[in-house]
Amino acid sequence: MWSIDFRPLSAVALGLLVLASAPGVLSAQESATTSRLSGLKMSGDEPIQIESDKLEVRESENIAIFSGNVSVTQGPTLLKSGKMTVYYARDGGSAATGSANIDRLEVDGKVYVKSENQVATGDRGTFDMKTEVLVLSGKEVVLSEGPNVLVGCKLTVQMKTGEAQVDGCKGGGSGTGRVMMSITPGTQNRSGSQNQ
């Protein structure tokens, strides 16, 4: 029996936390919304627990596939999906022993991310470790914090700079090609001060 050291995934899990902890992303324009996210720091301080119905390691392909009721927990952050594929860099490390560096992570099948009172959902997500770009996409991507809701079809976060963009749904989702946002007055300041 072998074990896999998933501590390198902490950067990914924390990156996914951005989806749920981005109060600054709640501002909308016509077909795309760009915002600056604050407080985006990647840290491997907390342990990660990954559970799934099945784990398949394909050493020759440098991938590990978690499938069926995938659940990733790190601190207050929870990620759920139907499938998560971890792609390892071809640098001589072993995916089976956890000594390989992670290149990128892909999740799909009803992606759900929750951290405290914030939730993000979509059909699929990717995180590229080299470029530090996080993307959540699907027929409808929904970010919510209490009564505040932001809806589009694609969320792209540049982790290095904190820049985020939400693209509207062209022919899908609401079909309007626009980003939709609903904010309850007074709640954004209260939730923002709690997260700082």
TrEMBL record:
GO biological process: one example: lipopolysaccharide transport
Gene3D superfamilies referenced in this protein's UniProt entry, alphabetically: Lipopolysaccharide (LPS) transport protein A like domain
Polar residues bias (residue ranges): 184-196
Family annotation (InterPro entries): LPS_export_LptA, OstA-like_N
Domain Organic solvent tolerance-like N-terminal residues, every copy: 49-162
Protein name: LptA/OstA family protein
One Gene Ontology term of the molecular function aspect: glycolipid transfer activity
Signal peptide as annotated in the record: 1-28
Region: Disordered, residue numbers: 169-196
Record keywords: Signal
One Pfam family linked to the record: LptD_N
GO cellular component terms, semicolon-separated: cell outer membrane; outer membrane-bounded periplasmic space
